[in-house]
Amino acid sequence: MHPSDGPAIETDSLTKRYGETTAVAGLTMSVDRGTVYGFLGPNGAGKTTTMRMLTTLTKPTSGSARVAGQSITDREAVTPHIGYLPEEPPIYDELTGREQLEYAAGLRDLPEDESAERIESLLERFALLDDADRRIEGYSKGMRQKVGVIQAVLHEPVVAFLDEPTSGLDPRAARTMRETIADLADREMTIVLSTHILPVVDELADEIGVIHDGEQVAQGDPETLKSRAETGETRSLEDAFLEITRETPEEIDQSPVPSSE
Q1: Distance between CA atoms of 140 and 145, rounded to whole angstroms?
Q2: Of 11, 130, 151, 243, which cross-links 65 as Cys (Cβ 3.0–4.6 Å)?
Q3: C-alpha dihedral (179, 184, 185, 189), degrees to nearest 10
């Protein structure tokens, strides 16, 4: 199947077990191209394991999945079409920000002129140009996060998996991140957004999937999920999340989306 055909992501009974522990159980889902997919769940619910399977970093125990039209059992077919930002960005402290991105572009075999233009544009967008030639070891957590995101989308993948992309960002940078995600989706990139900051998902996601104890317990657009919350007239994504997963409020980050004003 060609990367432009069919859903961006399809899974069928995708399962991962570690010994007697089931991390993900029978996950079946479909994500259309150009969708911002909010992937929610309490800590330990199976979100990271799912993302690692879909990015070919972890082999499933059973079931199947296709990403960008390619089976996740074929790593070489999948990886050119995906980008991945794990919770800790895979970057080298001894490199400068620019060198890190040039290295990533080289791994993707991007043409030098094309990659240099993209790197410059994204560095400017994330206000990193002035620090691009400093070594990463001197970067703040937020700056490292910016480099990780740029690296994940530099090659314009079909699907980008972003795990907590706004972590460590100041309000202005967090807004830039949200605007960038929205822009990428407008250009038909599919974004899988895993975060505990529910207002970010509420603002950006076209579709939300909720995983709990390794099983998908809900899927739908934000308004549909919020309509499930039986909390009277005041309904929010937090209400829906708490009802669906039966968690306590202390386990959720319901901080307001920071303003850059």
Answers
A1: 9
A2: 11
A3: -160
70-111 residue pLDDT tens: 999 999 999 999 999 998 899 999 999 999 999 999 999 999
Residues 237, 17: Cα–Cα separation, whole Å: 30
Exposure b/e, 42-73, CB count within 10 A at least 16 = b: beebbbbbbbbbbbbebebeebebbbbbbebe
- Tens digit of pLDDT for each residue in 203-212? 899 999 999 9
Tell me the residue ranges of DSSP E strands in 19-107.
Answer: 21-31, 36-40, 62-67, 70-71, 82-85
pLDDT band, residue 145 (cuts 50/70/90) = very high
CA angle 74, 75, 76 (to 5 degrees): 95
What is the enclosing helix (H) or strand (E) of 14? strand 9-18
Q: Where are the beta strands (DSSP E) in 164-214?
A: 190-194, 207-212
